[in-house]
Specification:
The complex is a heterotrimer. By secondary structure, chain A is of the alpha+beta class. Chain A folds into 3 domains: 33-138 and 193-276, Aldehyde Oxidoreductase, domain 3 (Alpha-Beta Complex); 145-189 and 285-447 and 599-744, Aldehyde oxidase/xanthine dehydrogenase, molybdopterin binding domain (Aldehyde Oxidoreductase, domain 4, 2-Layer Sandwich), CATH 3.30.365; 448-592, 2-Layer Sandwich (Aldehyde Oxidoreductase, domain 4), CATH 3.30.365. In chain A, helix 10 runs parallel beside helix 11. The longest helix of chain A is centred in the C-terminal third of the chain and has 25 residues, at 515-539. Chain A is globular and about 80 Å long. Chain B is an alpha+beta fold. Chain B has 7 helices and 6 strands; from the N terminus they run βββαβββαααααα. In chain B, strands 3-2-6-4-5 form a 5-stranded mixed β-sheet, sandwiched between helices. Among the domains of chain C are: 5-52, Uridine Diphospho-n-acetylenolpyruvylglucosamine Reductase, domain 2, CATH 3.30.43; 225-326, CO dehydrogenase flavoprotein, C-terminal domain (Enolase-like, domain 1), CATH 3.30.390. A 5-stranded antiparallel β-sheet of chain C has the order 4-5-8-6-7. Chain C has a 4-stranded antiparallel β-sheet with strand order 9-10-11-12, with helices on both faces. In chain C, strands 1-3-2 form a 3-stranded parallel β-sheet, with helices on one face. The chains are: A alpha+beta, B alpha+beta, C alpha+beta. Chains in contact: A-B, A-C, B-C. The B-C interface holds B 6, 8-11, 15-18, 37-39, 41, 60-62, 65, 68, 74-77, 79-82, 84-85, 128, 131-132, 135, 137-139, 142-143, 145-147, 149-152, 184 and C 1-6, 8, 28, 30-32, 35-36, 39-42, 44, 46, 48, 50, 52, 76, 80, 99-103, 105-106, 125-126, 132-133, 235-237, 333-336, 339. Strand 7 of chain A pairs antiparallel with strand 1 of chain B, so a sheet runs across the interface.
Chain lengths: 745, 190, 340
């Protein structure tokens, strides 16, 4: 492309195109759509973890003027019978939970009834006085009591990779000059996006539904609802224009969707159901995970053996799996590896993917163990990592499509000043504070899914691109507008992006860091196809300078179609449309991952994190004062939004390291800190001094855009780097998160 | 096996709803007369009765700050006050600060510094920042951080929020950045 | 939240009268705690008496040189009042260490005293709690009790009082002025909140319907040597695990007068007068402080998850006393003791 382009946007840092809507409160989230004659549903949650509902005494509540109905298993009409109807796109193996299906209580805070009333306040009150009788049975909720009962899941969910082994880990460890073996633990964590789950179901006069739901996948919700309620796709349109944070919580349909659709269909009225913050702790979570890591090196610090075992809970009804240990077989070079993994069912709800599922957990353990191993071997922790650099993916026995982790090490070490780090712990003191520096990193899949898009250009030169992908803060509207504008040489302002609607071409769930690659490629392909159509029209114009040009001979720049070799030979795009007499031109296209490249290469993003902490030794308080996070994730589409994702990941890492834990009282099988005051996530005062850098990483194999996605990778290594820095500051090795102050007293 | 009978309210005596009365609220300079019972929070009144959904419900318990509005120029959590108690007050919501076509300086600064991701906490952050500027108590980066800590951002956009608030506060308070906003620790690169 | 009627009182007397003429009434000031509790179905008043129109928000100097804080003055206005900042910086810092700017703009001084515990079990109607439902049992005992009491607890309740402001008020020997249906009376701060004993449902010694009209601070404000140290699970917007309020009067290196109160450790702000006596006349040294810390925690008892608070409190007392003696902390517009 010529250098005189004003319409080159990819890789730059334009502001978010949806920024003005978000900062003015104009962006509409699921529970905010204004529909006429709305009724409100309020969920009643079980106070017990296991048992049966003996009776629901709804009469009294139904006597309140304005209360419309109390939905429960006692009166839910016949719905789909088979489990498969309740399975969503990412349901793990097993039988999905069916809200209000029968009298069985499977987990604490299970929804047992939905009270619907004319106002929110009345529904809330009626729900609070609804009397429910339960037969309580003995529950089990503590994974610690299941240490020896984990089994390797035979029916993992999509994307589950069974743990691998290569050569002889025990022999490798036996031959090692230095060895370590420790257990690493973190408790349950809940996604807790700012927006609580909610749905507004618009019941149209013809009985069709428009469902505004909080979800990371409108198509996933549509197929779930249509299968259960026997609706056609035309009868259940699902919309999500903006999502107030997901982090995985919206990958599966949550029960507000089922309940609001049920109520709307039965009452033939529009219904809104919003969960409370407390109820946000009643479904999926990152599971409480116990991990054992064993490492051994030769005298030179080369890894000779590695064993990594992880165990976490699942529900009684589904086998939730995540890839916890797999990363340990590929982040470093090691000849002898045994990875193993177990799950154990408890009386809890099925865990659910939460930002960098598996990897956030596994890389925490691996990267703290690597730090421990470095000290055992007497090596600087970064030097130790360099010595064990993986030049190829040993799990897959394939080369990386690209991997600039070494460059990331260099960049990060230089920015952070790592060379000034004394090796010994407790070497730096500032008054009451001990200062420590730590390093860690991680690896995440660069995935791509099938995605479709539609592009429409109108006679006024405005382009609309559309796909049912989602926007949950990642910047989807913005990067799609950038790709579309650049592909067709239009100003960014001339592009409108439409997302999150099942009337638009299908896109994959918004997760896994694959949206940029999948939907971005679909948008690019679609705009290129539209460009070819436009070229053909341009060639029909009188005296067209493009008459004999092939698509590869022209470029779309600055509102023109012009010859690459003779840029002065051009046609104004808008003239093409006007002369053609077409009011609009529309093109559909899609994108698929390249199976050959997928076979041939290991496609991954990497990062490295350097952290500084200051620890008040007497009081145990830890302050994260500086973090440098360097990410190698292929091409960066938007420097601004990408950086924000990584900044946010660092905040998540600080949270994971120091604050976040949902604590269950096993006597009740109930999470007790189920609110935003006692489930701590960082405040503004907890965050300072974060630096984010992207290393240049060209990747011709991963996908046509060369992007790897950055929603998850930035989180990896943060908690471990902080844990390692705490050790460097204090000499105390904490192996269970979060590092509450009492663990350092 | 034991049997428990529960309603989450300890006192499950049936009480008929209190009928709604007429309540007049002055929101963004405009009077709205609503039919409300006393049990409607200011937040629910704004969102469900007036249709101003820019004010967000993030927890409904004063634990997140997403519902922050300005009442007589002071920032408060609209989820923890009753609409009827705010009769006679001047209520400013995010919709009263600016529109997509005419952005308030804080709104523009939030966009420029990418001080949000999902956008759900953003109206509350911006109203809170206006309250902070009205108070005039924050003079350093650390003070802005502390006095913006009543607004949780789960996306973790705090670096951008700090920089956006700082930029506008500096202008509004006519403070020289070199003396008043000394950097504690390292600011992030942009 | 159950239905309720609401009136807005024009005077303290009218409020008290209104209270006595209803079945299940409650006062509402800023609303930040009572509405929270009503939404959680923990509190069920059927009549609310709005106090925000009462002429009780003045902050003014008293005849004997103290300061009178109106009951309905907000926490923010109180913390930032010039007299408070100048003469009672301990109170200024304690208030600003609590809650968030938004909540401090709403919450009133009286409401701060009346706020209820943050015990997880008290707040969750699915679990037993003697404070919420007398006789149902205490689930926090033997449960998750990270934020619970180590001093003065009973077999019926191990909840803590969550206020920061009240810890400073205890140290400053505030007096609570109340209005009841039989007239006005004054309650010494140390007598205002109570220990749980066998009546954990009672947080304080107010008679039903009694209304707080003002808090009075005596002249001595310990403006030179004070400290409010707050330790919590994040830097801001979190309740204290342990907090310490200290006021010292020094003569050279000798302690002439001393006040010491702890937050987050008991059912009430925990002022220890015996410990104060151990400080008076002694040199302001770490050795003295350690001795005092030992004395304060002599009878402390952990409940499992909160065992660490005994050692944490010990160390926090020493640190706060050191800071106060050194005159390190200043009144401020923000609370900053935790920033490195």
């Amino acid at each position: 492309m010529s250098t005189d382009s004003n319409t080159k946007y990819v890789g730059k840092a334009p502001n978010r195109v949806d920024g003005p809507l978000k900062v003015t409160g104009t962006a509409k989230y699921a529970a905010e759509f204004d529909v006429p004659d709305l009724a409100y549903g309020y969920v009643v949650s079980s106070p017990v973890a296991k048992g049966r509902i003996r009776k629901i005494h709804a009469d009294k509540v139904l006597g309140l003027p304005g209360v419309l109905h109390v939905f429960s298993h006692e009166n839910v009409p016949g719905l789909a019978w088979f489990d498969r109807s309740y399975k969503d796109d990412v349901a793990p193996g097993g039988s999905p939970f069916r809200p209000l299906h029968d009298d069985e209580i499977k987990f604490n805070m299970q929804p047992v009834a939905l009270v619907v009333a004319d106002t929110f306040e009345l529904a809330r009150y009626a729900a609070s006085i609804l009397e429910v009788e339960y037969e309580v049975e003995k529950h089990e909720t503590d994974i610690e009591s299941k240490r020896d009962e984990g089994y390797e899941p035979g029916r993992g969910k999509t994307g589950y990779m069974p743990p691998q082994r290569r050569e002889d880990a025990d022999k490798g460890l036996e031959q090692s000059a230095h060895r370590i073996r420790h257990e690493y633990i973190h408790g349950a964590q809940h996604h807790n996006p700012m927006e609580m789950f909610g749905a507004t179901v618009h019941y149209h006069p013809d009985g069709k539904l428009t469902i505004y739901d909080k979800t990371q996948g409108v198509y996933n919700c549509q197929q779930y609802i249509t299968k259960i309620f026997g609706l056609s796709k035309d009868e259940a349109r699902v919309v999500n224009l903006f999502m107030g944070g997901g982090f995985g919580s919206g990958l599966r349909p949550q029960y507000e969707l089922f309940l609001s659709v049920l109520a709307a269909l039965e009452l033939k009225r529009s219904v809104r159901v919003t969960l409370t913050r407390q109820q946000m702790f009643s479904f999926g979570h990152r599971p409480h995970t116990l991990q054992t890591l064993e490492l051994g090196t030769g005298p030179d610090g080369a890894l000779l053996g590695l064993k990594h075992y992880a165990l976490h809970e699942t529900s009684r009804f589904e086998d939730y799996t995540e890839n916890v240990v797999n990363w340990s077989g590929m982040l470093y070079k090691c000849p002898n590896v045994r990875l193993s993994y177990g799950i154990s069912p408890l009386d809890v709800y099925t865990p659910l993917d939460m930002r960098a599922p598996g990897a956030a957990t596994g890389s925490f353990a691996l990267e703290v163990a690597m730090d421990e191993m470095a000290y055992e071997a007497g090596l600087d922790p970064l030097e130790f990592r360099r010595r064990n650099y993986a030049e190829e993916d040993q799990n897959k026995k394939a080369p990386f499509s690209s991997k600039k982790l070494r460059e990331a090490y260099d960049e990060g070490a230089r920015r952070f000043g790592w060379d000034k780090r004394p090796m010994a712990p407790r070497a730096t003191r500032e008054g009451n504070l001990l200062v420590g520096w730590g390093v860690a990193g991680g690896v995440w899949d660069a995935s791509m899914q099938k995605a479709a898009a539609k592009a429409t250009i109108t006679a006024d030169g405005r382009l609309t691109v559309a796909s049912a992908a989602g926007e949950n803060g990642t910047g989807t509207y913005t990067i799609m507008a950038q790709i579309a504008a650049e592909t067709l040489g239009l100003p960014l302002e001339a592009v409108t992006v439409r997302l999150g609607d099942t009337t638009l071409p299908e896109a994959p769930l918004q997760g896994g860091s694959w949206t940029a690659a999948s939907v971005g490629t679909a948008v690019k392909n679609t705009c290129e196809a539209l460009g070819e159509k436009l070229l053909k029209l341009a060639q029909k114009m009188d005296d067209s300078p493009l008459k004999d040009a092939k698509p590869e001979d022209v470029e779309f720049v600055n509102g023109l179609i012009r010859l690459r070799k003779e840029p002065q030979q051009s046609v104004v795009l808008r003239d093409v449309l006007q002369v053609s007499g077409e009011r609009e031109i529309e093109v559909d296209s899609s994108a698929m991952p390249n199976p050959v490249n997928m076979q041939k290469y290991s496609m991954h993003s990497h990062n490295v994190v350097f952290a500084e902490v200051k620890v008040d030794e007497e009081l145990g308080t830890v302050h994260v004062t500086r973090v440098v996070n360097v990410v190698a994730a292929g091409r960066i589409l938007n420097q601004k939004t990408a950086r924000s994702q990584v900044l946010g990941s660092v905040v998540w890492g600080i949270s994971m390291a120091l604050m976040e834990e949902t604590v269950m009282d096993h006597r009740y099988g109930r999470y007790m800190n189920h609110n935003y005051a006692e489930y701590h996530v960082p405040t503004n005062a907890d965050v300072r001094g974060i630096e984010v850098y992207f290393v240049e990483e060209e990747d011709p194999h991963v996908n046509p855009l060369g992007v790897k996605g950055i929603g998850e990778v930035g989180l990896l290594g943060v908690a471990a780097a902080i844990t390692n820095a705490v050790y460097h500051a204090t000499g105390k090795r904490v192996r269970s998160l979060p590092i509450y102050l009492d663990k350092l007293l | 096996m034991s049997i428990v009978s529960t309603s989450s309210a300890a006192d499950d005596q049936l009480r008929p709803p209190v009928p709604p009365g007429s309540v007049t609220l002055r929101i963004n300079g405009q009077e709205h007369t609503l039919r409300l019972a006393p049990w409607t929070s200011l937040l629910d009144a704004l969102r469900e009765y007036v249709g101003l959904t820019g004010t967000k419900k993030g927890c409904d318990h004063g634990q997140c700050g997403a519902c922050t509005v300005l009442v007589d120029g002071k920032r408060i959590n609209s989820c923890l006050t009753l609409a009827v108690l705010q009769e006679g007050a001047d209520i400013t919501t995010i919709e009263g600060l600016g529109t997509p076509e005419h952005l308030h300086p804080l709104q523009q600064a939030f966009i420029d510094h990418d001080a949000f991701q999902c956008g759900y906490c953003t109206p509350g952050q911006i109203c809170s920042a206006q309250g902070l500027i009205n108070e005039g108590k924050a003079h350093t980066e650390d003070e802005i951080r502390e006095l913006m800590s009543g607004n949780i951002c789960r996306c973790g956009a705090y670096v951008g929020i700090l920089n956006a608030v700082k930029e506008v506060a500096e202008k509004e308070l006519k403070m020289a950045s070199c003396t008043c906003y000394g950097s504690h620790g390292h600011s992030s690169n942009s | 939240m159950n239905p309720f009627t609401l009136t807005r009182a024009a005077s303290a007397e009218a409020a008290v009268r209104d209270f006595s003429s209803h079945d299940s009434p409650a006062y509402i000031g800023g609303g930040t705690n009572i509405l929270d509790l009503m939404k959680e179905n923990v509190a069920h008043p059927t009549h609310l008496i709005g106090l925000n129109k009462l002429p009780l928000n003045a902050i003014e100097t008293t005849a004997d040189g103290g300061l009178r804080l109106g009951a309905t003055a907000t926490n923010a206005d109180t913390a930032w009042h010039p007299e408070v900042k100048q003469r009672y910086p301990l109170l200024n810092q304690a208030i600003l260490a609590g809650a968030s700017p938004q909540l401090r703009n709403m919450a009133t001084n009286a409401g701060n005293l009346m706020q209820r515990t943050r015990c997880y079990y008290f707040y969750d109607t699915a679990t037993p709690c003697n404070k919420r439902e007398p006789g149902s049992g205490c689930a926090a005992i033997g449960g998750y009790n990270r934020i619970h009491a180590i001093l003065g607890a009973s077999e019926h309740c191990i909840a803590t009082h969550p206020s920061d402001m009240c810890v400073a008020l205890a140290a400053l020997e505030a007096v609570v002025h109340v209005q009841g249906k039989d007239g006005a009376r004054q309650i010494k701060f140390e007598d205002f909140h109570r220990l749980p004993d066998d009546q954990p449902e009672r947080d304080n010694t107010l008679q039903p319907g009694e209304l707080i009209v003002a808090l009075e601070l005596p002249k001595q404000g310990f403006a030179k040597h004070f400290s409010y140290l707050k330790l919590r699970d994040r830097q801001s917007y979190a309740f204290a695990l342990v907090s310490v309020a200290v006021g010292l009067e020094l003569e050279g290196a000798t302690i002439k007068d001393a006040r010491l109160a702890l937050g987050g450790v008991a059912h009430k702000p925990w002022r220890d007068k015996k410990a104060e006596q151990l400080l008076i006349g002694q040199p302001a040294t770490e050795a003295t402080f350690k001795q005092v810390a030992e004395a304060v925690l002599k009878d402390a008892k952990g409940q499992g998850t909160n065992d660490f608070k005994i050692e944490l409190a010990r160390r926090a007392i020493v640190r706060a006393l050191k800071q106060a003696a050194a005159g390190e902390q200043q009144a401020s517009d923000v609370f900053t003791n935790s920033n490195p």
